[in-house]
Each structure stands twice: as C-alpha cells, then as structure tokens.
Amino acid sequence: MNAEIIAVGSELLLGQITNTNARFLSGQLALIGINVYYHTVVGDNATRFKHALEIAESRSDFIIITGGLGPTKDDLTKETVASHLGLPLESDENAMEQIELFFKRTKREMTENNRKQALILQGAQVLPNNHGMAPGMVVTKEDKLYMLLPGPPSELEPMFLTYGTAALVGRLSSQEQIVSRVLRFFGIGEALLENEIEDLIDNQSNPTIAPLAAEGEVTLRLTAKHSVISSAIELIDEMEEKILSRVGQYFYGYDEISLMDELAKLLKENKLTISCAESLTGGMFQEQFTSIPGAGGSLKGGVICYTNEVKANVLHVRKETIEHDGVVSRKCAAELAENVASLMNADIGISFTGVAGPDELEGKPVGTVYIGISVNGKPAAVEKLNLGGTRAANRIRTVKYGCYFLLKKLKEIQEA
Amino acid sequence: MNAEIIAVGSELLLGQITNTNARFLSGQLALIGINVYYHTVVGDNATRFKHALEIAESRSDFIIITGGLGPTKDDLTKETVASHLGLPLESDENAMEQIELFFKRTKREMTENNRKQALILQGAQVLPNNHGMAPGMVVTKEDKLYMLLPGPPSELEPMFLTYGTAALVGRLSSQEQIVSRVLRFFGIGEALLENEIEDLIDNQSNPTIAPLAAEGEVTLRLTAKHSVISSAIELIDEMEEKILSRVGQYFYGYDEISLMDELAKLLKENKLTISCAESLTGGMFQEQFTSIPGAGGSLKGGVICYTNEVKANVLHVRKETIEHDGVVSRKCAAELAENVASLMNADIGISFTGVAGPDELEGKPVGTVYIGISVNGKPAAVEKLNLGGTRAANRIRTVKYGCYFLLKKLKEIQEA
C-alpha cells in the first residue's frame, strides 16, 4: 500500500507554519510498513485541492488529507472531498454531542458554524477527536482509501495514534513486518559516534542504521523487516548489542524517551525528592520536569534566581562568593545547590548558573556554565561546561547536561 | 509568477526530518510577491522525481528544487534535472576551487565523489555556497524557471537570502508589490471572531483576510497588492481599522510578536520588576520570559511551588487557606502573588495555581486555574479559568492568560 499525504492550508504556502504533520504521519506509517511516496501541500482553494486529489489518486492507494476540518469559511476539505467523491455529508450524532459538551464545559458561546464540524462523509468510519471538536474519518471509494485528519498537531497526533493506526492495520494487505527502534546517546558527537561504528553503517542491510543529530544528542534508528515480527526484533537486538559494546557508555534510552524522562523515572523508583535553583535556565529544567505527568511528585519546588539579589537574599549565597568568585562560578553553583535543597527540604539540590548570551557576564564568555549537584545534604559536586551556541541552544543544552550529570551521579550512588 | 517547491529526500518521507526549507522559502517568496501554490516532497528515486517535475511544469512557472546536491549515491537531483531538461552537466571552475580550498583548510582527504559537487547545468547561473560545498543554480528552459538549492537549512537559507532573491528579483516581470501584516488576538475563539467580521471576510479581495487559530490565539493575516508599496500599506491600514473597530478589545500585537514579548516590552518601558509563583505551570512563565534576550532585567526571580509544603513554608500561604479553601483557590492564588512579590522584593507578583491534569485535585476538575496578580504591594486581583484541554495545552494557555491579564491590568493602571 503506497501512501500520499496532502496537507491543505494556505498558511503552509505562506510560510506561516511548518508541515510537521507530514513528518509525524510519515514516521508512524513507516512503523506499520506503509510506504509514503509523496507529500503535497495545497492552499485553501477548492480547484487546486481537487487537482491535487486527482494526481494523488493516479499514483497512490492511500491518501491522507490533513487540515481544513475547522468551522471557518476557508476550511473546505470536507466539502471538496464530498463533491469530488460524490458522497453527501451527514451530521454525526456522537460528534455533535462532543461539540455541545465542549461548549458547555468551557462555558463558551456556540455559533452556527461550529455545527459544521460534526458533518462527516456518508459511510465513513469516524475517528473521534478527544482534544478538539472536528472528528477525523476514513472512507473507501473505488479501491482508494481516504483518511481525513484535523490540522492542529495537538489533535491530529493523538487521534492518529489512538484511532487512525487501528483503522489502518485492519485494512493492510502486506504481511511484511517492520520493526524500528531508536537508540539515544548523549555526551558524544555525531561524527565521533559514526566513526566508532563505521563498519556497521557501511555494511548495513537488515536492519538499517540511520544516524541523526539534534540539540547535543545523537540517535540511531535501527529498522528491520521480516515476515515474522519476533525475528525482526531479534535482528534489531543483535545489532543493538554490537553497537552498545562499542559506545554503550553514551547510551541513555530508547525511542521517544528523553534524558528528563529517565531522570524522573529514576527519582520515582528511588523515592527521592528534588529541588532546583535556576539562573540562566530561568525555569526550563523544572518546566520540562513537570511537563511529565506524574513526575511532579518528586519535585518539591525551586527558585528562579535570576538576579544576584535573589541569589543572596533568598538562596543565601555568601556575599564573599558573589564579590570574589562572581555568580558564574564553581562556588556559587555549589552554594545554590546545597541551599535550595535545604530551603525546599529535598533530598537533591541541582543548580544552574552561567552565561546564556548574547552578552558576556563578569568577564566570562558566553557558554560558560556551572551545574551544582548536592545529594542528601552533602557538599555539592560541580561540573563546568563551555558551550558555543546561541542563547536558546545554550539553555537547552545546559538542562540536558544537568539531567545527564545527575543521572550519572545517582547511578554511581546506586552502584556504590 | 506561480511557484512550486519540490523537496527531494527519502528522509522526509520516512519522517526523520521536517520540511522546514519549504516554510522558509515560502515566507521569503511571499515577501517578494511570488505566489507559492504547491509544495511537493519526493524520495531519492529518479522516476518519481521526474514525474513530480512533469506535474510541476504543467501548473507552475517557477520550480524550486531543494536537496540531493550532495556527494553521495542517493544525491540524484542534478543528474535527474539534467536528463529531464536535456542539458549537460559541466564542471564549474569557481565551485571546484572552493571545494579544493575547503579540503585544504580542514586537512581532509578529497574523494572523487566530492568533484561531483562542482558540476552545474549548462548555462545555469551559479549561486555560491558560503556554508558548504554544493553550489546552487538557476536555469531557464522553455519559459520555466528552475532553481536548485542544497538541502541543509544552514546552507540553503543564507544562499537564498544572499544570492537567490537577487537572482529572482531581476527576472520578475510583475512590478506588483505585496504587503502582508498579521493581527494577533487573544481571549476570543476563532469562530466567534469570524462571526464578528463575517461580512469583511465574505467580501474580501484586496487585501485578503486569512484567519488562523493556534494554542488559544487567533491571528488574521491581511495581504494587499498594489503597484505602489505605500498604497498597499494604506489598503491594509484601512482594513485593520475596520477590523479593530469591532474586535479591538481582543487585539494585542502584530506579526511574530507574542503576548510574552508585549509584556516584557511594557515592563521594561515602565521600569517595573516582576516575580512569579508557579505551581501547575512549573516554571513555564519564567522560562518563556527569560528566553527573550534582555527581558531578564525585569525579572527578579520566582518560586516553583509545586508542593503544598513549599507553598506554606517558602511562600507562607496560610494554613487556614490550604485547609479550608485548598491550594486550587482564589485565596491561595492571591496569597502566592502577594507573598512572592514581597519575598523577591519586586513591583509585581503573579501566581499560577490549578489543575493541569490528567487527574483532578481537591475535587476540582482538570482545567480549573487561578491566576493572581498583585501590583505595588496591593491586594491581589484573581482571575479564574475553566480550560478544557490536555495537560500540556492547559499549561500553555494558563501562561498566555497570565500575560494577557497582566497586560490588561498594567494598561488599566497606565490609563487611570
């Protein structure tokens, strides 16, 4: 089954937003063995959209259409597909009920054009929308399979994962199983990692090995094909073992897991509480930590100590340290980590102080960062970084390094 | 001149990377008045790429092709375009020199396939690559204009800005100027906003009006065409005035500005300092605030008060409030805002407490949020929200509402 993804929306053609839906869907379709041969983007224009549909039908079996299911006038996806396929639109009771409930719950006023969102193509299987109002749908016409999905990624992604994949798997004719696994590394550059496994990459066939670098991390995606799923998994297991025997010290997790996920898991398992003093990161560490559902239980709280005044008065960094060593210093990071743990009554204190940029600070260059970690009231260990990126990249990498150092520290303690 | 962007690369169809080049180029082309009607993505497959070229030629005057200019086996863009257009490839001396220099400078060994990168289509105008080895090029054949650009955004973007735009502007036949402006709204739904300006949308021609909703915000993009740029701006000014006379109370800014940018600007102008107590948002408000270069000067600092213990011990929320009203309450929000301002010695205290989800808290449903704002030591004003989204969406919207309420409050004070 060959697929094509058509995104509908003039905002894509104007460069206002990026077509992240095509990337998400392509990755998901690869996992269930559906080849995507084309992506198309077309504006909110019925004629050009119909033209794109005709081309897609001439070369693809399965056509996914994203966007244009909303309540406004330029949302013309359903109407155009309906007229193109010669299928009438009908109001779906369940979808209508969900829309009415949404307005009741949020105490907002419902307008007539919101009712349009409950219309579906006659005979279509409805994909419920648990994060918005417009339902998705799947319909077959003349051997072609059509799937309509809402444009906002916050609606499309959960809808596809929960209902879309299931709707497809039942219709798949191919018996080849594709298994994919991502290995995640931190603390090693892409070129160096590739060097270490160069022969494996050169001789790859099944599984394939695809490296990708992003924001200080490197990932390797292993993909194996086999008629028996357990055999595909075995092929991946073998290759993973070979790779990790060479660069295992930099490996930290699988697939979509982040360093922060790993940290939250380890803290929860060990019933440890954490607190955080953030200067240059401005709250990013704690924001990411609390974005993981359930992780919040390990976080007592923390202080954003952006000014020297707050470092001194709220977190009691010594006057001598600030005047003699400065706030971008080993000593300041240590005192911040120790004192935030004591203020918040937490097992662990972690601190971030440094120069995010664009300007230098205390004569220290952009990218100078100190991370302090104090566990169980012990004097803090401090790590120094020399990062070379933009303000945004330096902050992101600082938070990742914080997770990485703390994970290492906790594993050392466990093993001791 | 109607344009189409064809991206070549199997990694795009596998979902390994996102087609950010199409977004970048579309935005840039819009600025110089070139309409983009289609984006296409095709894999590293000569047959399917040729097929995509034929379709593009049937509907577009100007075809931009990105990616596949590298030295490896799967880089087939130049060869395919050459055979499709019947133009031979020739080695470009300047490009060859640049490639040799690159290898000399980095002391790396040059392989035969690197020479491939210096090949250009006969008769093409070369676009030099100052950030990599593969040159870009522009060529005309039978009234169609073709532009080939390298795939990596770090090479494509500077190449297009420095050489690509200039190459195009010289070839543009139309002298029509296009001006675009985005109006940003908060606190009103997309459907409701459109209802208010339905007649303007129905009768739009010049300027056009394109609404877009994302994360609780709605934007309207106004685009006007005129042979004289000042007249295009006038057309937009007139339409903006009409729109704002109806929904001006929800308008907060232009183009790429965010609510947080507006807030940071207002605080700086008025030399006001701010502090923040964050429970459900976990640091997101302060992380976003400090991500704006230079904004940090207005932020004294803040407390992430994720636990009741920290609310009580560090921010001194009264025991009575926690036991009687709970932490998800008007009173708790007020005390948090007042006390964080006093702890941090700041002019303004803002607090966020509520239920992000997925589970309810204190018997209060997911999406119940209180935002407290205290200015100059005065008792806090508290706003209540009933949000209906996921954990992530509720946190993002809470931060946006925080900016929105604080902006409103500060403007009220200014006007009083």
Overview of the structural elements:
- The structure is a homodimer of 416-residue chains.
- With 416 residues, chain A is of the alpha/beta class.
- Chain A has three domains: 2-169, MoaB/Mog-like domain (Molybdenum Cofactor Biosythetic Enzyme, Chain A), CATH 3.40.980.10; 177-254, Alpha-Beta Plaits, CATH 3.30.70; 259-415, CinA-like (Maf protein), CATH 3.90.950.
- Chain A has 16 helices and 17 strands.
- Chain A has helices at 10-13, 20-31, 46-59, 77-85, 93-105, 112-115, 153-169, 190-196, 198-202, 229-247, 259-269, 284-290, 308-313, 319-325, 330-344, 391-415, and strands spanning 2-8, 35-42, 62-66, 89-91, 119-121, 125-127, 136-141, 144-149, 177-186, 208-214, 217-226, 251-254, 274-278, 299-304, 348-354, 368-375, 381-386.
- In chain A, strands 2-1-3-8-7-6 form a six-stranded mixed β-sheet, with helices on both faces. A five-stranded mixed β-sheet of chain A has the order 14-13-15-16-17, sandwiched between helices.
- In chain A, helix 12 (284-290) links the parallel strand 13 and strand 14 (299-304).
- Chain A is globular, with a radius of gyration of 26 Å.
- The N and C termini of chain A lie far apart (54 Å).
- The model of chain A has no long low-confidence stretch (mean pLDDT 91).
- Chains A, B: Residues 4-170 form the MoaB/Mog domain.
- Chains A, B: It comes from Neobacillus notoginsengisoli.
